[in-house]
């Protein structure tokens, strides 16, 4: 029975590990699944050590058998069989992963930027303002197509790399703002989930999220009027 239950667990372990390896980059494996894999590997190793112990020390010597030793080994075997059965039952996962957290603006603009002198001056001024704790709102304006969006994404990446912020989130406002869509963009990049349907309640949840211990830089792009 010990060997039979061990092979069952090894089979389940192999199946779970295959599912973990097949998980794509958009999914994150659950901590409980990784913990189960470690426990299963450890238990299989313990059972194999016990089997070796029984094979080596469990036989009779010159017709003399240690009843006490055999009894203790039998108890160990029974305990391991129960552990194998229970762990195998716990390894029948319906799902092993969940959607991975969405990265911040560094994913949206991973490349380098070549600065003109005027762009470099603007970048330096924004970073200087970001370092100033007395400033909580910065505006960048210019003609359409002048590279404002690329600039703010690059500055956001740099500010995070310089450890000025823990997280950088970006939402597009546009000429005809959709408040719920803007809230959704910000919330997803902050890792927040809405249970509320109305805009006011969602705004409160975002506000509470922004007051967390994390330092969060919010970039609102393509703003045409007071929001």
From TrEMBL:
SUPFAM superfamilies: P-loop containing nucleoside triphosphate hydrolases (SSF52540). The keyword Amino-acid biosynthesis does not apply. Keywords: Plant defense. Pfam families: NB-ARC. Residues 122-226 form the NB-ARC domain. InterPro entries: NB-ARC (IPR002182), P-loop_NTPase (IPR027417), Plant_NBS-LRR (IPR050905). This is NB-ARC domain-containing protein.
């Amino acid at each position: 029975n010990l060997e039979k239950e061990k092979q069952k667990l090894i089979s389940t372990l192999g199946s779970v590990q295959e599912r973990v390896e097949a998980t794509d980059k958009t999914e994150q494996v659950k901590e409980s699944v990784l913990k189960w894999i470690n426990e299963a590997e450890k238990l299989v190793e313990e059972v194999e050590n016990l089997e070796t112990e029984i094979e080596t020390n469990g036989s009779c010597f010159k017709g003399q058998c240690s009843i006490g030793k055999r009894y203790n080994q039998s108890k160990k075997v029974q305990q391991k069989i129960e552990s194998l059965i229970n762990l195998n039952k716990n390894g029948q996962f319906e799902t092993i992963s969940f959607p991975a957290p969405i990265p911040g603006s560094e994913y949206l603009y991973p490349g380098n930027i070549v600065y003109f002198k005027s762009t470099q001056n603007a970048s330096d001024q924004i970073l200087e303002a970001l370092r100033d704790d007395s400033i909580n709102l910065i505006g960048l304006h210019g003609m359409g197509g002048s590279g404002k969006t690329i600039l703010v994404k690059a500055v956001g990446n740099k500010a995070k790399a310089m450890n000025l912020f823990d997280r950088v989130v970006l939402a597009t406002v546009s000429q005809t703002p959709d408040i719920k869509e803007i809230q959704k963009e910000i919330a997803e990049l902050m890792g927040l989930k809405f249970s509320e349907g109305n805009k006011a309640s969602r705004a409160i949840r975002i506000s509470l999220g922004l007051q967390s211990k994390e330092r969060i830089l919010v970039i609102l792009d393509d703003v045409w009027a007071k929001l």
